[in-house]
Amino acid sequence: MRKIGILSNTPLQVLPEIYGSYANGCFSGGVTIPLKNKGYEQVRPSRNRNYGAPSIMDFVNSLDQFGIQKQKVIILGDIAQPRGGPANFGHASHQTGLDIDIWLEDRSTHLSGNLREKLSTPSVVNPGTGKMNQHWKPFYRELLHHAAIYPETERIFVNPIIKAKLCETETDKAWLEKLRPWYGHDSHFHVRLKCPTGSTGCIAQAPIPKGPGCDSNLQNWVNDQIKWTNAPQKSSTNVAPKPKKVLPLECQAILKQQ
């Protein structure tokens, strides 16, 4: 039996497997995603979050080819730590190597060393009016569409104002089904892939409701964002603390195994 030691900064070299849920899990047999290729580049490399399940590598390869085709450099954010699990800061999810952030950046060149760590992307929405702002570009629609029609994409989190805009402008709304409204996600979007076939330890989310989701529920998301932006709510002191998550036993061993 291997010794259980400190948290490792390298993938566990065994057959690929995922344990737990997107927000409470881990993976073994992960792959290292190159920090850059011709059609993409990852920011914040010092975070050491360029790892994932093999299926995320396939998705990144598709982004690379899409970037090359469009003569763009697609900017990637966090994927996962070497074996997944909870991060020290930044995300509650991204724990199973199946999540990836894609920044709303329209670039045709790679980043300089300084920008690679410090790039800041502006919001593309005006949360106080519920409208898009001047930072939205046609390429972002193309990027979202590419991610949404990718066969293994399970869902994509975007700001509700972005989805509402696409509901207004798209003729074929079928691909909007995978776009799920979620606050934040106004300068990037979050792609989540399906649990891989045969990964019995991977806990999937409930299925997405059928249909494009261009309905009154989406408008409620937009209206609430407008209301909270213009009249911020005071935080309550009577909110009960959330129960502490307990990682699956497999993850407790994987994250410490040397």
From TrEMBL:
Its EC number is 3.4.-.-. It holds the Pfam family Peptidase_M74. The gene is mepA. Keywords: Hydrolase, Metal-binding, Metalloprotease, Periplasm, Protease, Signal, Zinc. GO terms for molecular function: hydrolase activity. Signal peptide: none annotated. This is Penicillin-insensitive murein endopeptidase. NCBIfam families: PRK09429.1.
